[in-house]
Amino acid sequence: MNPTETPTDRTMKRVETDGGVPMEDDQESTADAAKADGGTEKLVDVSPSHSVPDDDDDVRTRSTETAITTRDLNVYYGDEQALDGVSMDIYEHDVTALIGPSGCGKSTFLRTINRMNDMIDVCRVEGDVEFGGKNVYDDDVDPVALRRKIGMVFQAPNPFPKSIRDNVAYGLKIQGYDGDVDARVEKALKSAALWDEVKDQLDSSGLDLSGGQQQRLCIARAIAPDPEVVLMDEPTSALDPVAASKIEDLIDDLAEEYTVIIVTHNMQQAARISDRTAVFLTGGRLVEYDDTTKIFEDPEEQRVEDYITGKFG
Amino acid sequence: MASETQTSTTWFGSTEEVGRLRGRVFKWTCLGATVLTLFLMLVFLLYVANDALRPLSADPSWLATMGVTVVLPVVLLAGYYYRRDRSAGEVAYTALGLPIFVALVSGGLWLLFRHIVSPQEWFVLAASILVAGGLVTAHSRVRHDAAVERLVVTVVVPLLAVVGVPTVLPSLRDLLSLSPVLPNALFSLVIAFTLPIAAVVGWRVRAVRDADRDGAIAAGITVAGGLAGVVVGPVFGVHPTSWLVFASPIVGALVLYVEHVVRNDEGVSGLAFPIVVAAGIFVGLTAAQTLGFAGPDTWLDMQFLTSSTSTTPADAGIYPALVGSVLIMIVIVLSAFPVGIGAAVYLEEYARSQGRLGTVIELIQVNISNLAGVPSIVYGVLGLAIFINLIGMGRGTAVVAGFTVGLLILPIVIISTQEAIRAVPDSRRQASYAMGATKWQTVRNVVLPESLAGIFTGTILALGRAIGETAPLLMIGVSASVRVSPDSFLSRTGAMPRQILSWSTQITTEFRYGVLAAGVVTLLVVLLTMNAAAIVLRNRTQRTQ
Ligand SMILES: Nc1ncnc2c1ncn2[C@@H]1O[C@H](COP(=O)(O)OP(=O)(O)OP(=O)(O)O)[C@@H](O)[C@H]1O
Ligand SMILES: [Mg+2]
Predict the structure, then answer these.
(1) Would the N or C end of chain B have less CB density within 10 A of its end CB?
(2) Number of residue pairs across A and B with CB atoms under 8 Å?
(3) To the nearest whole angstrom, how far is the Cα of A201 from the nearest Cα of chain B?
(4) Would you call A127 helix, strand, or coil by DSSP?
């Protein structure tokens, strides 16, 4: 848990994530989080939130600090344009969902943030991505340093064929961390709600876990070096509903410490877990970006409503 | 529904006999081709083996004894494994093959210790490396963040320790070898050969069992196995030092393998197989000897392996050529492997695929594939032109032979390493980069560990190809027949295939049949053992992925 964070922040967050979520679902995740943090105080300071009416979006006093700001972002693969003038403020400790039909550039957007696109020879980026007061595409920014601040979880679980411990410790190892690695591994596994399942087999291979466990392992790996932002590209699409709901609960908790940006094709999932939702439509345009409740209940654009209700996509 | 009953009389009948005939003929033709290939191989192998070993020259009662003590138990056991416990069968052949393979490698080391690096020299070399390693580690602890300085130290310190600055500064190795008190050969090897092996074995067992005691026991068994020669060696007429060189790696490998099998608890009964084989041979030979049955008069025997060639077929041997081949192999391993693997890593991990540079890289790639098919005699000419005529290295030396044949297998090494690297899923690289790993960290921590087994497989197969090459050796003047073993990489050497070729042109028939066949079998045993090891390694990694 981030020590600088005040309980109020969390309460706030609870308030607005309650939108449309069934009661027992939320309790379960809260209990999980409390267990993971080894204390019960959270239950106490979270429970009042259930009595707060959650339909009042205007009272949000959620963090207004932006974590990432993009300005007129255009991304091209060769001659093909994948993102078209995307300008967007992503707020700290928000869960921001990116939705949109296949091929609209959601993954491209994520990869643009942590400059994973650098690895694709044909990819070209125009515009600014501001992170920590700096355009990440400035010449003096080292993408390696950037990626150490911004973790990423992929669609298909991709643990290394190493032990569970070494998987989680990977980021620490490459950053030359010389503190108590085991403690950090334990903390990350707890935050990823995997500790109880694997604490007796930390030396067995990460590939021996089930798909859902592997994905949580990948989440643990991404958060172990304590990044500021966690990018998730359809993290649950390869998982069964039970494993997926575990990860959804987890994302909720992660937002207390990290800024989470998640791509999903699952509308319910976006509605359940995110604070803000960005809708991309074909051609790589950001069509609407607003609070999740607003997007799902009363979108400005007809096209967005059509997409959400499944009329096209 | 109604129509279903109507057609049901015809749909399962075979009305298309003629249409299937073609398929069947095709299938049987393919099968015939396969059987023919296997048959020809088998005939050839039996033919050479028969010439080399001459089993029929033995007493029928000797053959019967061996049949009862060796062949029968082996067949019975194999049948049992085949019907009851397939995984034990797998364990059985690995458990038998592993010591044979390790023995072969140890044989190479033994030759090395005997002719090139004496045990004391090896001791001094190992000590220098140890000191240099200690210094580098200590420095990296103290000056953790000084990246450039650390790089310099990592390169310079080992160089100073092992090579020094010629004529200016003697290396640590030179200084140590001047020392008046050096351990004798046996102790040098105990310290600088057996102990490191035991340490690796113990460390590994400790890591997988997570128990210090088990690690210590494993290391202890390895050391004991190596030292047993002091007591048991004289009984078998084996010098303790020789025993040490063979036994330490064999025992170490067996300890690791037995531990692995027992821990996984799968096919444990397969471990009995090598014991049955060894005991059968021992009992059979002792029985035959006490009963006075004469064994076969083989061409391939200890005498053949340990003596040099001669004008009388009965005294002829392959030893110096064997030493030469081992030296050539070592040169290849030290030169072609690093270069080939390095090139493959560059082409796969670093080379850009776009732009002008991408075109150049593609051109290189195509050329490498082409080079793999260039006739070996051409490489011989190349070696002669470059290494001997241009650079002026000595004709027929192990270095030149190793470089030339190394050049020949370089494309194969590169291509097979590239394949192994390409087999690492890209998602793992992505994961590593996304964690903020640099290219080097990704290659070092993700790509290489995962492709290592594949790289080994490919390079071992390439090495197998290399040791049989004859044509390039002719071009660069490798001695046709050697009586004296080379004593350094720079002295003139022979090689097994070259020696075999010169036997084939002798006038005496025994040379052309018996001695030649013995040479071929020796070469084949080395080659097939290496290939088998590569294949086992490949199967093993395929299963774990
Ligand atoms: N490596 C690449 N090289 C060339 N074009 C690419 C590459 N990756 C993506 N594209 C193109 O960019 C566009 C956006 O792709 P992107 O992967 O960002 O879509 P997406 O919204 O994540 O789709 P999905 O929901 O199917 O994952 C697509 O038209 C795609 O063809
Ligand atoms: Mg995508």
Answers:
(1) N
(2) 73
(3) 12
(4) strand
Q: How many domains does chain B have?
A: 2
In whole angstroms, give the CA distance from residue B266 to residue B463: 32
What CATH number corresponds to the domain at position B391? Answer: 1.10.3720.10
At the topology level of CATH, where does A58-64+93-115+145-308 sit?
Rossmann fold (3.40.50)
Tell me the C-alpha distance between A25 and A126, whole Å.
42
Is the domain of B339 the same as that of B250?
Answer: no
Pocket of ligand 1 (CB under 6 A): A 77, 82, 100, 102-108, 120, 122
> Shortest CB distance from A152 goes to which of B144, B353, B434?
B434
Instruction: Please determine, for residue B402, whether its predicted confidence score (pLDDT) is greater than 90.
Output: yes
In our burial notation (b when 16+ CB lie closer than 10 A, e otherwise), range B49-87 reads: bebbbbeeebeeebbebbeebbeebbeebeeebeeebee
Flag whether B43 is in a domain: no
Query: Per residue in B399-423, is it b (16+ CB within 10 Å) or e — as a string?
Result: bbbbbbbbbbbbbbbbbbbbbbbee
Domain membership flag for residue B482: yes
B435·A121 Cβ contact <8 A:
no
What does the alpha-carbon distance between residue B491 and residue B115 come to, in Å, rounded to a whole number? 12
Does B337 share its domain with B416?
Answer: yes
Q: What is the rounded CA–CA span in Å between residue A43 and residue A52?
A: 15
Global pTM? Answer: 0.81
Query: Do residues B264 and B372 share a domain?
Result: no
Range of the domain at B535: 313-544
User: Is residue B340 domain-resident?
Assistant: yes
In terms of CA atoms, which chain A residue is nearest residue B443? A174
Say yes or no: B14 contacts chain A, CB-CB below 8 A. Answer: no
In a domain, B508, yes or no: yes
- The per-residue pLDDT for range A230-283, each reduced to its tens digit, is 999 999 887 888 888 888 988 888 888 899 999 999 988 999 999 999 999 988
Structure tokens at B449: 């560990």
Considering every ligand atom shown, identify the ligand nearest to the alpha carbon of residue A86 and give its number. 1
ipTM of this complex > 0.85? no
Q: Do B319 and B292 have their domain in common?
A: no
* Digit-coded pLDDT (tens) for B210-220: 888 999 999 99
Domain check: are B229 and B325 in the same one? no
For residues B227 and B240, give the distance between their C-alpha atoms in angstroms, rounded to a whole number. Answer: 8
Contacts of B437 in chain A (CB under 8 A): 144, 170, 174
Shortest CA distance to A255 belongs to which of A23, A90, A137, A70? Answer: A90
Q: For A161, which of B434, B436, B450 is closest by C-beta distance?
A: B450
Chain B: residue nearest A143 by CA? B436
Nearest CB among B352, B427, B450 relative to A121 is that of B352
pLDDT digits 0-9 by tens, B337-346: 999 999 999 9
**Within this chain, do residues B352 and B412 fall inside the same structural domain, yes or no?**
yes
Chain A residue whose CA is closest to B209: A203
Instruction: Tell me whether residues B434 and A225 touch, CB distance under 8 A.
Output: no
The residue ranges of every structural domain in chain A are 58-64+93-115+145-308
Say yes or no: B184 and B326 in one domain.
no
* Domain stop point among B297, B326, B358: B297
